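[step 3/7] fold_predict: job queued, chain A
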Amino acid sequence: MHELIIIAQRFPFPPRHGDQLAVSKLIKAALTKKIDVTVWLPHREYKKWNGKPSRVKFKKLIFNPLHMIFNLLKHPFDPLQIKLFSGYQVKNLDHSSIIYIHSIRLSRVVSSSFLEKVNLGAQINHSKELLEISRDTHSSFKRLIYHFEAYLIKNWYRKHLCLFRSVFSVSRNEFQEYGIENLHVYSHGANLPILKDTKVMHDNEKYIIGFWGNMDFTPNYHAALKFSKAAQKFGSIFNFTLFGRGSSKFLKDQSFSKVKILGEVESILEEIDSIDILLNLVDSGAGFQNKTLEAWCRGVLVIGFPSAFRGLEGSEHLHYVIKNIDELENMLISIDKDKMMTNAKNSVIWVAKNRDADLLNIEKLEIMEKKR
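[step 4/7] structure written:
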């Protein structure tokens, strides 16, 4: 393979969102192996490139209204998220290169006949995601829209996923019903730290419960609001700590009065090691499992909504699931320090067996290249 071509929705640097982190890590892995990288981006994202990184070529996807009209007429039952990007085109792709599209939204950028040469980052089953969202809406009209879009996406998956050279997902269960032969599991947006199988228990009278992340990312922001509600309810029994980019915005928020806010910290690892429990209340986005994996790498126990463990098949013995904040107290009372120590070892063992340290393993793309 002499070149890796990536078609992405957003400029990957600096990586502040899961898709940017996934693409930026893939770029770095390719450059380390001395593989040339070209990234195609929509015009508004291409404008963010200022010449750096200089070792990567960035090119602009062409928006062609006629191409969009052609796709809308030819594929009237495409999901809306694909229709919105169906006017973009990329031409003169080198057939000898590895081609990776990091979203189904950009799948019409190349012709259908060319999909057998393309690797797709599908991440999560958006059909399932929309059906889950629809259950929480009180509007009958919105619920109907969600169900219709979910139906269109499911049909698109059934017809098209088998056409790609390979598909990358955060979970094998996300797409198992579609019988994809070359399905690879990876952790979308996770920055997996060094494995540490011994948990240092702190001499605290109260457990330290933590949450971290980029608070400019909407799923993290909403999870932080739920985290603060837990702190208001149980702050007299447990200590709550919040850190990460953008967390300082909550310093003057009275609803966070029971939360110790550290802001953007120099070492995320040191802060993760300083807590006893991660309360993972992220329930949307493709990176819902990321913090769970990051905590497990450091032997930190995780309590969270079911979404915190989605896609982590075979790790059920590590799950501490709550359906709402009210269940948190009983869950914490049932956990002792011996159980935490056992969990620390078992979680690291699971991560070592089931997840690559590399976010999206470049070797997997190279293997697909050899199969041509």
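[step 5/7] annotate
Residues 3-189+357-370 form a domain with the Rossmann fold fold (CATH 3.40.50).
Residues 140-160 form the longest helix (21 residues).
exit 0
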